[in-house]
Amino acid sequence: MKKSFEFFTSILGTLILAFMMILGSVSFVFANHNASHSGPGTHSCIVHQTGQILPKSKFYTSYDLGQLDNGGGRTHGLVLGGELALGSSWGLGAFVPTYMYERQGQNEQFGVGDVGVTAKYKLWDHQTFSQISGVFNLPSGDDNKGMGRGTISQQLDYLLGIKLGPASLFSSVGVAHHFSQDSDPILLTSIGVNFPQLLDLLFISVAVSGQTFLSSDYFNDGSTKIFLEPQIFLPLDAYNKWYLGFVSRLGVYDTLERESLASIKQDRNELLSDVLFSGTVTLVRVF
Question: What is the pTM of this model?
Fold first, then answer.
């Protein structure tokens, strides 16, 4: 029965992830880079899984406070999400973000962002470990208020790491893009180290991540921003069911430049990628 269940869930997860990847390929084939929509932001809170690559069923909620660069204002985000482990390799989930933006001289904007559906697959987990994952975003956020991208979008990532005693080194590469006439792809990369069980208690990670606008109607092609991202998770109970996490993000290198003909509109969703610094508090319940 257990083997049958794992076989069924593996087939289901494979079909879902394949569907997401096929849609992504189709959008790139038909992109001609003439649409008015710009690339998706990368501001959604994602709970890192590099400390434990084995999928686990969980529920999480997080609050994020961010300061945008170049006087762009301040953002508040609240995310509710969960993940269901299917067998020993697959994880399927969803999250619902809500945002509030504060901009100087403008009224506060509040609303629901783009709802996301997630899928990930553990390729292997031995001395080295590897995983592929995807996020499929529905256009539930109002793009006129900067709450969403105004079109279906997705992000695909590949993670690879190696275990070295109490630490693990990891790196990832991914791409986020639109499902519109102009896909506006953003290249996402990261490299870091984590300590999954420091002092048999804490999960600590430090990463350097980058985002490069490969093609955009708002930022110059090739514009890049690099962030330093430390984080710490600690258990709240003796059974390791509840965790409290603190994650920060600090821009340390910035070559983002707006296109000379791009309209200066402060509620553009892609401005959310231009973060000066941010902090996130996350509460996780593992089942």
Answer: 0.79
Q: Count of CB atoms within 10 A of residue 114's CB?
A: 26
Sorted by sequence, the CB contacts under 8 Å of residue 72 that are 6+ apart come out as 103, 266, 271, 274
> What is the average pLDDT across 203-220?
87
Quickly count: other Cβ atoms within 10 Å of residue 88's Cβ: 12
**Which amino acid is residue 188, in one-letter code?**
L
Q: For the chain, how many residues are written?
A: 287
Signed CA dihedral, 80, 70, 231, 46: sign only: positive
Helices (H), 147-242: none
Cβ contacts of 84 within 8 Å, gap of 6 or more? 57, 91, 92, 93
CATH tag for 2-37+53-286 (out of 1.10.3720.10, 2.40.160.40, 2.60.40.3140, 3.30.420.40): 2.40.160.40
Distance CA 139, CA 30 (A): 19
Question: For residues 155 and 174, what is the distance between their CA atoms, to the nearest angstrom?
Answer: 7
For residue range 108-166, list pLDDT tens digits in order.
888 999 999 999 999 999 999 999 999 999 999 888 777 888 888 889 999 999 999 88
Model confidence over 228-241: pLDDT tens digits? 999 999 999 988 89
Assign 24 a pLDDT band (cuts: 50, 70, 90).
very low
